[in-house]
Amino acid sequence: MNKRTIVCCLLLLAPALTLHARAQDTAKAPEAAKAPEPPTHYYRLEFVIQELGSDGKPTNSRTYTTTVSTGRMDHYGAIRTGARVPIITGALHGPTNAGDSKLEFQYQYLDVGVSIDTQNVHENGGQLSMLLKAEVSSLADPTHSSSSELPNDPVIRQNSWQASVLIPIGKPTVVFSSDALENKGGMQLSMTATRLD
Questions:
Q1: DSSP string, 141-163
Q2: Cα dist from 165 to 58, 121, 138, 179, whole Å
Q3: Among 42, 55, 163, 170, which residue has the fewest nearby CB atoms (within 10 Å)?
Q4: φ/ψ (deg, to 5) at 136
Q5: How many CA atoms lie within 13 A of 101 on its CB side?
Q6: How many whole angstroms separate alpha carbon 47 and alpha carbon 116?
């Protein structure tokens, strides 16, 4: 091969080599441009559920506490507390030792109580943001019919909220509230975030 042929081949390959080098630089650029991961911090979340009277003052208050971190977006926290309430779904006449019959009840169990879920917790300046879901269910005052052998089915009161919230760190904040259906009272959920580290 003479020198002229080698020079021509190099001149023809030069644009292709330049494009390949630029493509490699472009592929590396997003990695270099990534912002560093924010540091992980831990927070104690205190939730206070208050039942309010018709005057707007608390008549009952319950507190729930958990710890969350800001490091991973897929991390979530959950609080569960409650009871399984038997609900009569039917009755059968069964024999007794005396030969007569009595009612035997069939039951189904219903979960009532408090359920609080947090997800995607992260810092936003001096505030904390997260996806928050809360459900509060309880039995209303029981009523029984005197004209029947079967008690009336219980009435379940339920409040359910879900939203993205932004709260100041270290300050109690009402995040959800609702009126009661059966009276002029209501219910509210407040929360306080306290940094632990």
A1: PP---TTSSSPPPPPEEEEEEEE
A2: 23, 10, 25, 20
A3: 55
A4: -130, 120
A5: 7
A6: 9
Question: 106-118: buried (b, 16+ CB within 10 Å) or exposed (e) per residue?
Answer: eeeebebebbbbb
Measured distance CA(39)–CA(77) in Å, rounded: 19
49-87 in b/e form (b: 16+ CB < 10 A) is bbbbeeeeeeeeeeebeeebebeeeeeebebeeeeebee
Q: What is the pLDDT of residues 134-143, one digit of tens each?
A: 999 988 766 5
User: Is the separation of the CB atoms in 158 and 137 below 8 Å?
Assistant: yes
Give 174's DSSP letter: E
Structure tokens of 40?
Answer: 């992980």
Query: pLDDT (tens digit, 9 = 90+) per residue, 4-51?
Result: 666 565 556 666 656 555 655 555 555 556 767 778 899 999 999 999
User: Taking residues 76-93, what's their average pLDDT?
Assistant: 86
| Token output for 103 | 């009612």
DSSP 118: E
Dihedral sign, Cα of residue 138, residue 143, residue 148, residue 149: positive
